[in-house]
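User: Can you predict the 3D structure for this chain?
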Amino acid sequence: MTKAVALLLLLAAPTACMDPGHDDDVKALGTETPGVPEGPLHRPGQPCLVCHGGDGPANTEFSLAGTVYLLQEQEVPAENAVVTVEDVSGVAGSVPTNAAGSFWVNADTWRPTYPLKVRVKYTTVTAVMNGTVGRAGSCADCHQNVVSAASAGSTEQKTATQTSAGHIYIARSQSQLGTASP
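Assistant: Here is the predicted structure, written as structure tokens:
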């Protein structure tokens, strides 16, 4: 190999492996929450596949992942809820949520075929997604916690907007949960 070819390969290698858009997406997630170590309980409500989608920086790849909350406008995690996903070919699978309300499907276990139907069961209450998931394995790509100021700016609320369905939740109010509260 000539020196010129070796130099060209050396200069091209760093740019061939970098994706500035993906790097920006990872940076936009911000820092870890103080006191919460990296692992299954970190970053609830964030788009998990930014790091776990195969491009890293996480080592484990997920095909689906998200966070479920008990109520529409509160960030109380729905621990021990069961998320059931059925793909277009009729294959279905269920996964539980953890203490942060988070769930995931390892990519080496199942790569569903889109579109997907989703439902979440928490004790006796079942929430069914009105539409289907068309392409995004990170639920937070559409289900973001959007903060809006309440009247007179007194309290912040989590709400849906034209660009976000709001976070995934089991019920709109505590009364809908009935005795199924944590």
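Confidence is low (pLDDT under 50) at residues 5-16, 149-155. Residues 3-16 form the longest helix (14 residues).
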